[in-house]
């Protein structure tokens, strides 16, 4: 850390200098830009030769930007700015050398900078570095103090964000993303517009208190949300969200990815903090504080009647509440009914119930508050309406219904009766149009056609709201472990409304890695009861701490020391560390641990985590990146698997942003879906540790290469967004999602504008930020090459098959025209396929060789494969296994003989892409996850592609699973397992193709 | 769910009722038949004996009422779950009087008794299948939507789903619970359809055991702490093929009860008793405190 800090300071100074120079012009002229560049170059010169070279390269690029410009930047002004900022950032990063952190900042800034003036950029950089420093060390505040108030504000925010980011980062991609955005944008904006106003937000917390904080007027929802979570000391925040009331007094979820101001549409900055996704099994939550908050929500739900329960259950839940809040039943305690009344346990609370509550309370003697909470939740979760979000609707005949959205699907109630239920796997598509809400149902075993069920909502707004809730719930609960992140993002991008957070699976994984002493927290009782209760020890939780809430989080933090531990249940003894430092460090540690777990698996590259980590990390890697550009070809080939390797980095945030962009791209590019193919590719190369480094480099290279592509995508995106506006949206739950989108009529226009702005911003940033996504994409692409090819094939083949398909193809081509993106430029980058490539380090030369090299066997040639416009080698490699075949998988695996050439595939892929712009959807890598076990490393990369063609939608999920081990691996078993898991994760899909590559390292590297 | 499942099939009390002589002629039936009241009473005796001795339940026997020919089928008069009892409003007008005695008996047992007073509502207990985790209510000739709604309102903790009953008198005329998470169901098409619907409507997963004869799917499952799974089923004489299927159940003690006469008036095994778990009243939800206090 120390080193980092110092380096940061340096950076700052430099930045300041540059800032001073550049500050004046509002818009950066080219000249100024050049200056900047030169500076950067000079600095670079100081650096090692390699770096020089690289920088020069960069510089060239920058100067030569003109060629890129059109692609990169949609908006002219941003173009000019673009090149310089990136260079600056780069140079700064290089200068620092080991201090990757600054780089990271630089990157982020760059992105945002595009919009802003150079000078501003510089400032920002400064600010960012400050923020970093501050996050790590307290002194940062001083610095901020020196600077203008705005700046200090920034820094503070940044700090917060950073913390958040770290915390979130640990958990997973989603959090990271959020963190990113908030970090970058809000601060940047502040800088930009000094006049930016701060707004006071009031957030009603679950314990009945209000949390007040200031937020920049243009802040996004997540910024506020993170602030609240920080105030609550909540790590498992993915289950929660903020709500606001719209103009019609309807409660709406605040979209974390959008500006608050755009959402609330009134000047009423009041929110409440609520549970958004009720965990089906609260016992799986990691922390007591999370359970406590869930309890508070449920108490409210029960008391308001939103969660109906019987008399007995009311009483039982109430008794647990008493136990949690007041400890053991104390017969001597005066006026017990007083506090029971305060607890507001049931909508109709009467004497009889109170008696019952006390009776039950007595039986809980000895339970700690945490245990009582657990019991409360164990009972509450069984209630049939637990976690069901009801929306009034009518059926086609005008009969009043309630539609309930929950973890398992969509429930239809008539009065209290459940009259129908559509489990998520049964739902092919969710859409709304005006005030109609539709779900398309998968045909049953005996049915031939899918059916669509329509409901009428009160108005267009409520239809949209319901749709959103469905999208989010599906994403959160259904998208499973390895894939969820991807899908989630995917969804998010598609329409304006997509779930942007982590899925439950991710969140669980993340929380399993939470590594902090369970935080002490005060319970509501302390707030409510002012009189001291001497009797019960539990009660010792006093009001004293009440005040804290008002004071703000810091208070909270202090509380640690003061507050008592409630019971045995609170396992970890409360430690009083100042949150500021120790906690942050711990968080970081835990985060890094998390990352490690993700990354450790050597072979596979979970695109997201790896990439961002690398970027973010303050490891030497950054420098490497640049260098790599030159090298591109060689490393790229190897790069594929590498992604996972890097592990230390702490800033997930950036990644997140990147992802978002990706998503957008995906959406636009890909549309509908139909049958889903799950391709399971199992590679089992033994990857030597040595390779890891290479991989990183490779990865980076890929990133850069990608950039142009992204920019292009961004363009597309923006375009698409414009066209989007309609009153309808679709969501294909099973796949990931394709969407068309737009939403509310009136609002739409505004939203669109906003979105465009955003897009513009994003585009601007795209070159830098985008690179990350690109990487991901590429990795995915690698994986997907086959997919795409197959798609193409399908497309072509499809034509023959049926008219519909033809239609699709036609559409695709049309679309393709719209999407200039997929250009040759990409190709080179794309070449580096990850995992396979890794194996095949040897083979650049072979790239062009036909795929025949692959060892894969064609087990069952699929009909799809039959017609290929492009003969891409890939086919040969594929082993196709039909569903039924699964049983035999083992045998298949056995047949294969380990062969080294993976590279071939890569090549193929690229070719496919180039040609296939029209047909093939660009692969998007949604999720990558690496799980490492002792002797065996498995990396799963999931690629989801949705294509909408002429009304037919097709969703493919391609999973690449790389199993690496230094010891012998039971390949058959691994393959069987992989297929099994794939099936489990997508019960609604069928495994259509399995490609197996076995690669055994040549003796050289191994052993 | 675990606690609920663990308690599934645990009972302490049973309410039964005598067979009036009027059963022979006046009891409702779906197809004409001659009932031997004496034989029916003998069967009923045997049935009660099993509840009492084999299952160890405290049996409350209500006296037969000649004016209520169907009164032996007490199940239709009340739905009991936990400590709450819903006094139904039977779909057949001639049976509405049956609820009075039932209500008194349940109140005497200190149950939390709720009456269905809505005149638009009808509900026969035979249409109510409680799985331990949720209710399915058959919409039949005897039970309507409103009746189901009221049931849902009374048992708020549970999901209540409706299932159209296309054939047979009641939902439980072709199905019943054969254990925690196990649905016994007849093989007829309507029965299978109903099962499909139930499966679709449920968030929970159930195993199914299909028996060839619909009526044979109506069994009484009891879980005794000392004896484990017990299943009271119709005799082999009545449904030999179905018994063979039931015999596949592992670790089950199968107990046969002749129900021949009562089936002539559409009476199945479950129809003749209301089973109650007094101990479960609240403890259903409570995990033993001992686990915390140690």
Automatic annotation (TrEMBL), chain A:
Main localization of the protein described in the UniProt heading: cytoplasm
Cross-referenced PANTHER family: 4.1 G PROTEIN (PTHR23280), BAND 4.1-LIKE PROTEIN 3 (PTHR23280:SF20)
Compositionally skewed regions (Low complexity) per UniProt: 708-722
Translocase is among the record's keywords: no
Source species: Cynoglossus semilaevis
Gene Ontology cellular component list: cytoskeleton; plasma membrane
Protein name: Erythrocyte membrane protein band 4.1 like 2
Compositional bias of kind Polar residues: 607-620
Residue stretches making up the FERM domain: 199-481
From TrEMBL, chain B:
InterPro entries in the record: DDAH-like
One cellular component term from this protein's GO annotations in UniProt: mitochondrion
Record key words, sorted: Hydrolase
Molecular function terms, GO-annotated: amino acid binding; dimethylargininase activity
GO biological process: arginine metabolic process; citrulline metabolic process; positive regulation of nitric oxide biosynthetic process
Keyword Lyase: no
Catalytic residues, chain numbering: 170, 271
Chain residues that bind substrate: 28, 70, 75-76, 95, 142, 265
Family per similarity comment: Belongs to the DDAH family.
Protein name, UniProt field: Dimethylarginine dimethylaminohydrolase 1
């Amino acid at each position: 850390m120390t080193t980092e800090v110092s380096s940061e300071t340096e950076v700052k100074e430099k930045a300041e200098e540059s800032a001073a120079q550049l500050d004046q012009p509002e818009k950066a002229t080219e000249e100024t830009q050049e200056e900047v560049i030169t500076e950067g170059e000079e600095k670079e010169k100081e650096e090692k030769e390699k770096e020089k070279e690289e920088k020069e390269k960069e510089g060239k690029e920058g100067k030569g930007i003109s060629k890129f410009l059109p692609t990169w930047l949609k908006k002219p002004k941003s173009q000019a700015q673009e090149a310089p900022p990136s260079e600056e950032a780069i140079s700064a990063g290089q200068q620092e050398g080991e201090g990757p952190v600054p780089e990271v900042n630089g990157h982020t800034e760059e992105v945002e900078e595009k919009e802003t003036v150079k000078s501003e950029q510089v400032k920002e950089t400064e600010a960012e570095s400050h923020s970093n420093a501050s996050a790590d060390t307290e002194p940062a505040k001083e610095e901020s103090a020196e600077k203008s108030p705005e700046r200090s504000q920034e820094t503070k925010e940044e700090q917060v964000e950073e913390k958040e980011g770290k915390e979130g980062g640990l958990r997973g991609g989603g959090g990271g993303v959020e963190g990113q955005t908030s970090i970058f944008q809000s601060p940047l904006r502040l800088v930009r517009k000094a006049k930016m106003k701060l707004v006071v937000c009031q957030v009603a917390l679950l314990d009945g208190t209000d949390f007040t904080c200031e937020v920049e007027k243009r802040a996004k929802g997540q910024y506020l949300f993170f602030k609240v979570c920080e105030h609550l000391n909540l790590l498992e925040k993915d289950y929660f969200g903020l709500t606001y009331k719209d103009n019609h007094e309807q409660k709406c979820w605040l979209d974390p990815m959008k500006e608050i101001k755009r959402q609330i549409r009134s000047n009423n900055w009041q929110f409440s903090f609520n549970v958004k996704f009720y965990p089906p099994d609260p016992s799986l939550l990691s922390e007591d504080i999370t359970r406590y908050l869930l309890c508070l929500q449920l108490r409210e739900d029960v008391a308001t009647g939103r969660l109906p329960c019987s008399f007995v259950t009311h009483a039982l839940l109430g008794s647990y509440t008493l136990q949690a809040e007041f400890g053991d039943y104390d017969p001597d305690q005066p006026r017990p009914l007083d506090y029971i009344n305060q607890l507001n346990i049931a909508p109709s609370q009467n004497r009889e119930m109170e008696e019952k509550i006390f009776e039950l309370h007595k039986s809980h003697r000895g339970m700690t508050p945490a245990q009582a909470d657990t019991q409360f939740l164990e009972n509450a979760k069984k209630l049939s309406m637990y976690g069901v979000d009801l929306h009034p609707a009518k059926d086609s005949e005008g009969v009043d219904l309630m539609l309930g959205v929950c973890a398992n699907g969509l429930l239809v109630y008539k009065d209290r009766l459940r009259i129908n239920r559509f489990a998520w796997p049964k739902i092919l598509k969710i859409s709304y149009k005006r005030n109609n809400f539709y779900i398309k149902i998968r045909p049953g075993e005996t049915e031939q056609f899918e059916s669509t069920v329509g409901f009428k909502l009160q108005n267009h707004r409520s239809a949209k709201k319901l749709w959103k809730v469905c999208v989010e719930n599906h994403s959160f609960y259904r998208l499973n472990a390895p894939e969820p992140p991807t899908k989630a993002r995917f969804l998010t991008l598609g329409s304006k409304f997509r779930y942007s957070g982590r899925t439950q699976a991710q969140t669980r994984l993340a929380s399993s890695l939470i590594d902090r002493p369970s935080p002490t927290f005060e319970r509501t009782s302390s707030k409510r009861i002012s009189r001291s209760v001497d009797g019960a020890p539990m009660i010792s939780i006093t009001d004293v701490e009440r005040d804290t809430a008002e004071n703000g989080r810091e208070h909270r933090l202090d509380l640690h020391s003061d507050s008592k531990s409630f019971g045995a249940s609170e396992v970890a003894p409360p430690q009083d560390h100042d949150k500021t430092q120790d906690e942050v460090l711990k968080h970081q540690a835990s985060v890094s641990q998390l990352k490690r777990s993700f990354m450790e698996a050597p072979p596979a590259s979970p695109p997201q985590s790896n990439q961002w980590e690398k970027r973010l990390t303050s490891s030497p890697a950054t420098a490497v990146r640049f260098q790599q550009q030159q090298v591109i070809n060689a490393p790229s080939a190897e790069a594929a698997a590498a992604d996972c390797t890097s592990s230390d980095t702490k800033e997930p945030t950036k990644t997140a942003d990147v992802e978002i962009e990706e998503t957008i791209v995906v959406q636009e590019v890909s549309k509908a879906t139909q049958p889903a193919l799950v391709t399971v590719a199992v590679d089992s190369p033994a990857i030597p540790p040595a390779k890891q480094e290479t991989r990183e480099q490779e990865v980076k290279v890929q990133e850069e290469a990608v950039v142009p592509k992204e920019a292009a995508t961004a363009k597309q995106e923006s375009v698409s967004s414009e066209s989007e506006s309609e009153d309808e949206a679709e969501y294909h739950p099973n796949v990931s999602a394709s969407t068309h989108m737009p939403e509310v009529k009136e609002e739409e226009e505004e939203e669109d504008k906003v979105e465009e702005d955003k897009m513009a911003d994003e585009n601007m940033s795209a070159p830098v930020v985008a690179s990350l996504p690109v990487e991901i994409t590429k990795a995915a692409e690698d994986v997907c090459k086959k997919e795409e090819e197959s798609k193409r094939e399908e497309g072509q083949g499809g034509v023959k098959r049926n008219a519909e398909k033809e239609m699709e193809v036609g559409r695709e081509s049309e679309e393709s025209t719209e999407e200039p993106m997929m250009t040759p430029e990409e190709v080179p980058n794309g070449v580096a396929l990850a995992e396979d490539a890794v194996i095949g380090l040897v083979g650049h030369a072979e790239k062009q060789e036909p795929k025949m090299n692959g060892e894969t066997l064609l087990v069952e040639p699929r009909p799809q494969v039959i017609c290929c416009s492009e003969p891409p080698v890939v086919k040969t490699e594929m082993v196709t296994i039909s569903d039924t075949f699964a049983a035999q998988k083992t045998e298949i695996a056995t047949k294969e003989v380990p062969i080294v050439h993976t590279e071939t595939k890569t090549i193929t892929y690229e070719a496919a892409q180039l040609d296939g712009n029209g047909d093939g959807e660009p692969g998007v890598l949604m999720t990558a996850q690496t799980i490492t076990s002792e002797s065996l490393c498995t990396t799963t990369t999931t690629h989801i592609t949705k294509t909408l063609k002429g009304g037919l939608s097709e969703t493919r999920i391609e999973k690449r699973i790389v199993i690496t081990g230094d010891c012998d691996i039971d390949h058959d078993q691994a393959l069987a397992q992989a297929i099994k898991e794939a099936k489990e994760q997508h019960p609604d899909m069928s495994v259509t193709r399995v490609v197996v590559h076995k690669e055994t390292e040549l003796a050289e590297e191994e052993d | 769910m675990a606690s609920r499942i663990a308690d599934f099939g645990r009972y302490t009390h049973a309410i039964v009722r005598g067979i009036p002589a009027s059963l022979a002629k006046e009891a409702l039936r779906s197809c004409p038949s001659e009932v031997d009241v004496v034989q029916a009473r003998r069967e009923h005796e045997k049935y009660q004996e099993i509840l009492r001795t084999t299952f160890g339940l405290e049996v409350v026997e209500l006296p037969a009422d000649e004016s209520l020919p169907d009164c032996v089928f007490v199940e239709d008069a009340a739905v009991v779950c936990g400590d709450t009892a819903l006094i139904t409003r039977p779909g057949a007008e001639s049976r509405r009087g049956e609820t009075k005695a039932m209500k008194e008996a349940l109140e005497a047992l200190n149950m939390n008794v709720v009456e269905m007073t809505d005149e638009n509502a009808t509900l026969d207990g035979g249409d109510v299948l409680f799985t331990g985790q949720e209710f399915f209510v058959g919409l039949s000739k005897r039970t309507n939507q409103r009746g189901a709604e009221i049931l849902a309102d009374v048992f708020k903790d549970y999901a209540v789903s409706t299932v159209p009953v296309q054939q047979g008198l009641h939902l439980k005329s072709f199905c019943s619970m054969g254990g925690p998470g196990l649905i016994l169901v007849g093989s007829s098409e309507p029965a299978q359809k109903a099962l499909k619907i139930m499966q679709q409507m449920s968030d929970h997963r159930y195993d199914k055991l299909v028996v060839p004869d619909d009526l044979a799917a109506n069994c009484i499952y009891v879980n005794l702490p000392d004896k484990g799974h017990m299943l009271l089923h119709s005799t082999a004489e009545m449904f030999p093929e179905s018994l063979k299927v039931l015999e596949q159940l592992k670790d089950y003690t199968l107990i046969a009860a002749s129900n021949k006469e009562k089936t002539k008036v559409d009476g199945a095994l479950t129809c003749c008793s209301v089973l109650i778990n007094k101990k479960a009243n609240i403890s259903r939800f409570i995990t033993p405190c001992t686990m915390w206090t140690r």
